[in-house]
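Predict the holo structure. Ligand: 3,4-dihydroxybenzoic acid.
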Amino acid sequence: MKPMHVLFAGLFALSAGITPLFAQQKNYSLDFKGDKYETQTISINGTDHKIRAFERIVYVRNPVDTTFQILNIYVPEGYFNGETINGYTARTAPIFFPNRVGGYMAAQPATATNTPAGRPGGNGMPPQGPGGPPNGMGGNRGPSTVALALSKGYVVASAGARGRMTKDAQGIYTGKSPAALVDLKAAIRYLKYNDKAMPGDANKIISNGTSAGGAMSSLLGATGNNNDYEPYLNALGAAPAKDDIFAVSAYCPIINLENADAAYEWQFNGVNTYRRGGPMQGSNTAGTDLTPEQISVSAQLKALFPAYLNSLNLKTPNGQRLSLDNNGNGSFKEYVKAYVIASAQKALDSGKDLSVHSWLTSSGGKVTGLDFDAFVRYQERMKTPPAFDALDLTSPENQEFGTATIDKQHFTAFSASHSTVQAPRADEQFVRMLNPMYYIGAAGTQTAKHWRIRHGSKDKDTSLAIPVLLATALQNKGYSVNLELPWDRPHSGDYDLDELFQWVDQLCK
Ligand code: DHB
């Protein structure tokens, strides 16, 4: 019989994603084994490429779950023959780091063959359990993100990570916040620790992910080397190395979760029907009316957003303060509109006919105005208020913020006090550790220098305010940010890989 305090310590450690004291563990080596590979041939646009595949490497000394805490590394064969590919050598090649996290679920690492581009349906969406995102949306077309990256001469490393439903053999949850991020950070540390032994330049790691995976990508970029994660990394036996990265590619990052409910209602208040659909909500249903209670919740949440926005003290690149009045109007709303207008302009310039949209005005080939409320009605509401911290605990985020022994919790004051199920509220530190906004440029933190963020203009999984806030906070602190809201794109990622890889090449060459 173990003394109670040891048991409690074990449980506490588990609740924080730390390895239990009483677990039997094997020690895994953290040294990259250059001779343990398989040669694979991948076909990209009709050309065969030979690669070396180093697969299923356990990336921490003391894993909790070897189904997910594993890393796949792919290297163009040419680098072993002294070749130069796309201007890169074995020493200078960037390391592209895509994750397949979706819906805050556990994820396997990507492979060179199984992950067609264009997630949903491609990169990042393995078959999932109930509540998880389905496969197949958007179609499985084209070569995989990994294969295309390899054809550009990048080394590709993709790590798996635990997720909100991951349990150990005892039924203890091991993947609640911040486990997925800690896992990906541990994999980054493995790459940095082995930089000399491996092809690729670990000072040029570019992370990539979509939705919850985009959240992970932006968290990797925001939180580099921050001490908050240190105890959890230590407990796993992560490699003794840093975990900051060079650049972030994030598609529709589902982030800033404790403010996302208010942001959603700032945008969608007044749209009183919703249509589910999209990865987290099952198949499309016909429009359903909000209940009077939900309409009231929407108004209460919308009213919380201006105070949050104003507290951030954000500015446009020209130095104009971004603010909102009590009704949610003001320069920040105009700024979000400007991103939508820029997106429409790009669509117009590429020959798209936008005259069907009466809420857009243009003259002489220039988009001159946008009726934001009408545009939002065109977007349609997808989620019911509160969009993330559901009052009945039914959201994926409620489950992400559970503990070792509690599956689902609230994570905002609003939903904890309006709960219909009297559920407990998550430890604020675990909510904070999954929000990149707190970490951008913080003391002791190495935030990635370069950011490319994409969020489709028709993506209503979260408010358009969320990517604009992220980009603006980064820009205001001096990081280089490229944010676009691609025209009419629904919730998806990796749909513009040629442009993404051009951006990477611009940074790395
Ligand atoms: C994802 C989508 C959501 O709407 C959400 O709330 C969380 C995650 C996703 O696609 O990963």
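Residues 102-104, 133, 211-212, 254, 279-280, 396, 461 surround 3,4-dihydroxybenzoic acid (CB under 6 Å). Residues 1-17, 19-24, 118-141 have pLDDT under 50 and may be disordered.
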